[in-house]
Structures are given as C-alpha cells and as structure tokens.
Input
Amino acid sequence: MCVTVPSPTSPQGGRYSCYAIYKYNAETQKYDKIDTCKDTSYTMKAAAGKTYKVKVHAVAKSDTGNCYSEASEILSVVS
Output
C-alpha cells in the first residue's frame, strides 16, 4: 500500500528534510510512529482488505532539534 504525502515549506522557509509516518493503534487509541521517509510517497505492509488510519508530519532539522509540521489530515487507506 502506498501513501502519498505533501511536500510543504518549513516555517523557516526551507524544505522539510523528511516525513514522520504515524498509524492509528486501536488498542491504545493513539497514533504510533511507524517510520520516517525522505520521499513524498511511502509504502507500508498491509493486510488485504484492511483499512488503516494514517497521518504524516513533515520534519525540518535545525540547530536546536527537529521542527514538526502540524499533522496532515487523517488518511483512511484501504489495502
């Protein structure tokens, strides 16, 4: 399954260096970080016919640490 993410401009005017991908965990009722990627598309393993809720944060690295964008809209993805 492939999720396409936006490529926004960071608050500092530069580009984000990567994207943090989060998947909803129904047991904990929270989003768990599953990976980061540098591209605007991400492929994850998925069970056939299952629906996943995914959200993405763009990440910019700075001298003081990482700067995260607001979360994307929650994407409901069916495999």
Observations:
- The mean pLDDT is 79.
